[in-house]
Amino acid sequence: MLSQRARYALKALINIARAGDGPQQVSAIAExxxxxxxxxxxxxxxxxxxxxxxxxxxxxxxxRLARPADLITFxxxxxxxxxxxxxxxxxxxxxxxxxxxxxxxxxxxxxxxxSEVRDAVNGVLEHRTLAAAIAAEDPASV
Length: 142
Prior knowledge:
mainly alpha, Arc Repressor Mutant, subunit A, two-stranded antiparallel ribbon, 2 strands
């Protein structure tokens, strides 16, 4: 299940992408996207540390995307906010850990099935960008 943190992060990033080059202030994003401001401030810090946004201080400051919207995938955002996308640690490509209760990964039926799940989910998330999400909002542009 998608965490609330990840949902809010995606909504905030899409908001910033829609705004174009100008910085977006947390208060404006929070109001426009119906996100609690304090929670959004924490999320934006995570996104900044994850190199998905840059921050500028001051009255004219705010957040901008760190790279173009067509180069930020949903997978990038989920990994930054929630960590591994895989449902089992032994099938994660970026956060692999051996399962404590597994005696043989090579013959584990769970590992085989959840590797397929990982591949299917990653196939979508790695190819869905912020720009694609914005384009999907306007059926005339698709």
